[in-house]
Design a protein that fits this description.
This is Oxysterol-binding protein. The protein is an alpha+beta fold. Helix content is 28%, strand content 29%. The chain has eleven helices and 21 strands. It has helices at 30-33, 42-49, 53-65, 256-261, 278-281, 283-290, 294-318, 366-372, 388-391, 437-478, 489-508; strands at residues 3-4, 23-29, 75-79, 86-93, 98-109, 112-120, 125-137, 141-154, 159-163, 167-171, 179-190, 195-202, 215-222, 225-233, 238-242, 249-252, 265-267, 327-329, 336-338, 351-357, 360-365. The chain has a 15-stranded antiparallel β-sheet that branches. A two-stranded parallel sheet has the order 2-3. Strands 18-19 form a two-stranded antiparallel sheet. The radius of gyration is 30 Å and the shape is globular. The two termini are 29 Å apart.
Length: 510
């Protein structure tokens, strides 16, 4: 079961001002940080149904820019993910009653590669990609390069957009004011409709003022033709000037209203996560940082890294290579792909709901519901886990020194595909593989209700038979001089009982 993401320092937004800023760890994993790009995934939902290709490209570009303004206060780096570490979450779209799911896994340690998959089949889009983190040291500055690309696909159109990422540049490491900027040229390209957006994230020049911080410029082209130009600041206002237009218009701004409209993130509760899920894996480091205990945070971090090195030595001795659980490497393209990706368009006549279970994205379909209606009579057998997956069920609630993260393939716990209680909409029907405890409880409740309804219907049929007999007797008695059947107190009592049962049944089945 997913719950709304806990608010706190991880959710802080910074306006990107210059000045003395505290440096240190950002209390979350890099896999979690990559999910910041989907708080405004509703823009992609709009783009998926936009008929005009140029307007579609602008919506994609607006969504791309929406992923940068949300950042921690100060200069902080996220945790380097452990090999096999996973992170999963989702966002609920109230406008379309759908969910955008995010699945990420650290698939390689040398070099460090993070693979991710995002899917919202109901709204018609998915994103797949991988990022290889690299760093370059220049004396008093450091650049963190994000080498890789992501592919956005609109399912109903079979239309792909290829996206690249800027790099992060930190100045003032040894002396001076420490600042963090984004730099480099990025592209968003759709080969099918021949549109391309080019953006340049500009570093502050040596003699630049405060207005030259976080500047961005770019253009949208179709072949050799320039359709529009963009300028502004990636953490503030971005303006667009269409070709043939005499003035610029506001294209994107992270205003207070926009921030309030961003989708709400839902994560799996800590106690339901496996040992290699990000929040549970780093919980003791995060707790120490939140308390300001840097010494304890360093100890806990060292324990995790040492456990990872020990597992690597064991694999080397046993000649057992590491195999990611949720992603696989294409031997031809050398690209990482989600094992359970589904690019088929959403069929409203066949598909009911998309949900995530154990890191696997599934779609509940009408055929499955028809086959699973027997769950009202019997809950069905439970899917039992064995081997390493069962071992990962054990709690990892003790700090280092009491327990260490164990070797696994990054499997995730059985979780209810629904979100929080306030957002349940009845999409999911229990059944299939490994129902969670909450689903089993719901199935038992529905089974009991079904049995009660059957017994009430039997009583209703019996009362109908009595009433028919009573009415027949009344018709015969009306022709005789003797008093009618309904003048008997017993008959009136039975009639009142029937009417009361009928009202109760109508109330239940309403």
């Amino acid at each position: 079961m997913c719950v709304p993401h806990r608010q706190g320092h991880q959710e802080g937004d910074s306006q990107g001002a210059e000045g003395e800023l505290p440096a240190g760890e950002e209390a979350r994993s890099f896999l979690n940080k990559l999910s910041d790009y989907y708080y405004h995934a509703d823009l992609l939902s709009r783009a998926a149904v936009e008929e005009d290709a140029y307007s579609r490209m602008k919506l994609v570009l607006r969504w791309y820019l929406s992923g940068f303004y949300k950042k921690p206060k100060g200069i902080k780096k996220p945790y380097n993910p452990i090999l096999g570490e996973t992170f999963r979450c989702c966002w609920f779209h109230p406008q379309t009653d759908s969910r955008t799911f995010y699945i990420a896994e650290q698939v390689s340690h040398h070099p460090p590669v993070s693979a991710f998959h995002v899917s919202n089949r109901k709204d018609g889009f998915c994103i797949s990609g991988s990022i290889t983190a690299k760093s370059r040291f220049y004396g008093n500055s450091l650049s963190a390069l994000l080498d890789g690309k992501a592919t956005l696909t609109f399912l109903n159109r079979a239309e792909d957009y290829t996206l690249t990422m800027p790099y992060a540049h930190c100045k003032g490491i040894l002396y001076g004011t420490m600042t963090l900027e984004l730099g480099g040229k990025v592209t968003i390209e759709c080969a099918k409709n021949n549109f391309q957006a080019q953006l340049e994230f500009k570093l502050k020049p040596f003699f630049g003022g405060s207005t030259s911080i976080n500047q961005i410029s770019g253009k949208i082209t179709s072949g050799e033709e320039v359709l529009a130009s963009l300028s502004g600041h990636w953490d503030r206002d971005v303006f667009i000037k269409e070709e043939g237009s005499g003035s610029s218009a506001l294209f994107w701004t992270p205003s207070g209203e926009v921030r309030r409209q961003r989708l709400r993130q839902h994560t799996v509760p800590l106690e339901e996560q496996t040992e290699l899920e990000s929040e549970r894996l780093w919980q003791h480091v995060t707790r120490a940082i939140s308390k300001g205990d840097q010494h304890r945070a360093t100890q806990e971090k060292f324990a995790l890294e040492e456990a990872q090195r020990q597992r690597a030595r064991e694999r080397q001795e046993s000649l057992m290579p590491w195999k990611p659980q949720l992603f696989h490497l294409d031997p031809i393209t050398q690209e990482w792909h989600y094992r359970y990706e589904d690019h088929s368009p959403w069929d409203p006549l066949k598909d009911i709901a998309q949900f995530e279970q154990d890191g696997i994205l599934r779609t509940l379909q009408q055929e499955a519901v028809a086959r699973q209606t027997t769950f009202l009579g019997s809950p069905g057998p439970r899917h039992e886990r064995s081997g390493p997956d069962q071992r990962l069920r054990k709690a990892s609630d003790q700090p280092s020194g009491h327990s260490q993260a164990t070797e696994s393939s990054g499997s995730t716990p059985e979780s209810c595909p629904e979100l929080s209680d306030e957002e349940q909409d009845g999409d999911f029907v229990p059944g299939g593989e490994s129902p969670c405890p909450r689903c089993r409880k719901e199935a038992r409740r529905l089974q009991a209700l079904h049995e009660a309804i059957l017994s009430i219907r039997e009583a209703q049929q019996e009362l109908h038979r009595h009433l028919s007999a009573m009415l027949s007797s009344t018709a015969r008695a009306a022709q005789a001089p003797t008093p009618g059947l309904l003048q008997s107190p017993r008959s009136w009592f039975l009639l009142c009982v029937f009417l009361a049962c009928q009202l109760f049944i109508n109330h239940i089945l309403k």
